[in-house]
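REQUEST ID: PR-0412
SUBMITTED BY: lab tech R.K.
PRIORITY: routine
TASK: structure prediction, single protein chain
INPUT:
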Amino acid sequence: MKRASFKEIFGWAMFDFANQAYTLLIITVIFGDLFTRVIVGDAHADYRLGNLLWSIALAVSYLLVVLTGPVAGAVMDFSAARKRFLFASYVLTVISTSLLYFVAPGYIWLGMALIVVSNFAYAIGESFIASFLPELGPREELGWISGFGWALGYVGGLVATAFALVALGEVSEENFERIRWVGPFAAVFFLVAAIPTFLWLQERGRARRLPGLRQYVGIGFRRVRATLGDLPHYRDLTILMVSVFFAMAGIYIIISFTFIYGAQVIQWDEKVRVWMFITVQLTAACGALAFGFLQDRVGARRTYVATLALWILAVSLIFATPWLGHVLDLEAQHVFLVVGSVAGLCLGSTQSAGRALVGVLSPRLRAAEFFGFWGLSSKLAAIVGLLGLGVLQLLVGLHLSILFCALLFGFALLAALGLDEKRGRQVAEARESRAG
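STATUS: complete
OUTPUT:
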């Protein structure tokens, strides 16, 4: 299979560039912190109620992805309608994110509802855009293509959040009238930056038409049932999904709570918060690119396993930051900056390697369906991880609860040790030949 043109690969990667504005501005850096400390604002109880409600809202949104992702993927494979599904998720994300402007202090349920809708649309869009990956190049080049997308995504996040931090200022009740514009700002950035995706990314496959929506949904459920019955033949892809489940549970906790952890546990000041953001974005982009090229040379499985081991180290350092600051006679927030660089290297590389592995182990004619299962595994993991952390931090506090992530990455590593990349690739290629 020939590699797609660089123009098309760049158009595909621009969706990663665009949607990072949502991930960082809404989930990680600004709105999550705003929701827990200002919208809910239970400072007397260490913001534990706000943290729990934030976890619940995100978990509900990921549950919706779990329920709809594989069926949507099966319908897209049947009808060759991936761009239309991607466009629908894009429009819904833009509209619901812009409406976050109206979430004021005390408007807890409105905030939760809009996060459920916007994060559902964003998260399912991740699966939709990923399903194009296997058609962009031969299997041995998917590592760098996926890494390029993740790296460009972190550059997009850096650009969007840098502008937002300068223009909107700090997260505080006193600055609420400015910081509330974070929703519309993220929406407009996503709206404009994703335009190249819809101009240059090609829809491949033979479109098949049915008379009504019910028939499409029926086809989707039948194809998913057939795939579930066929999973024993995809042994290594199944092992990968189990590993991805545990890895993504940990990653979604890190994404959703790093800046909340920095504000509540490390108690950093505004300057360090900005530097942490820059550090994580740059190291994540470098990690995605470097590990992407490494993956094409030493194998996707080895690269993926190495990133999981690095995650266990990173989480241990996050937990130990206050103690390390005391031992080194440094402020904990400055130690946390160094620790953030280790976490950043892991953040881009693990997700990129996992996405590329799905592409390597999936038959191309069923790529959207299998990436739907990848999305199901990731978002089901997010539900377990976020609710697990939400309950744990309610019982023992956020600092001690972060060790839950190290346990999750340990399980992911153990599962990945049973994966045979060569065997899984041969199965996928045999299925393609049979379908052809």
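NOTES: Residues 36 and 54 are 7 Å apart (CA to CA).
REVIEWED BY: pending
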